[in-house]
Amino acid sequence: MSDRALVVVRAGALTTVQDRGRPGYAHLGVPRSGALDPGTAALVNRLAGNGPDAAVLETTLDGCALRPRSAVTVAVGGAPCPVSVDGRPAAWGAPVAVPAGALLEVGAAVAGVRAYVAVSGGITVAPVLGSRATDLLSGLGPAPLGDGTVLPLGVPAGPPARVDGVPQPRPPAELVLRVTPGPRADWFTAGALRDLATRAYRVSSASNRIGLRTEGPALERARTGELPSEGMVLGAVQVPPDGRPVVFLADHPTTGGYPVIAVVRAADLTAAAQAAPGTPVRFVPVRRR
Q: Is the pLDDT of residue 238 over 90?
């Protein structure tokens, strides 16, 4: 058995393997998937000396604990959280040397939702359709990690970054989502369109990698009935029968039958990955480019 491996001692609430995803397969019903906060995933890879395509771990709220079988360099970023090696405090947002057999503990998020853990050499589980990402909707890629899971590691591509730490965006105190009109905006009343642009929403605790669900005023339909299933894109704001908007994230379905009232700018979805339940949400209409 190779010593280039990582043992999951504590998997946490939800820890998955993620990379840049598998774009280009929507016509087969396969979502893009990949890290919800791709900028942070790329950053921790650079800090650990990996290339941009290396797979990392994405944790949810309460972190994880890992034990490498060989000495590795690790970088943790995203949601601020305590990091320790064999019980001794270690740096967050900077390269950390972890000896063989030592316990790396990534603690609960102090703010935000998702931490990203890069390990030198990257996680080298078998790729599916060109990606190692876990897709919660389709089931493609490795299953969410469990205690005792052993993850193979690749050969380090280069030395870790020579930095003490790097600035990272703080999780949003308010999630501002710029939106353009969706293909079914005409299925809603003028009052509903006004409510979406002016009323207060909050992130629901039912949110996940598939979609960010909201709590707030229900949006009133101008038309009854349902649509035949049609294509869905990343950032689509779909309105199910309860009238509360749902913003589709990386593991979203590629088709759906509920009307899409708006579409969120792609640049704003990274912040959505770190918006904790209860975070205020504002939808801000902008012109199409």
A: yes
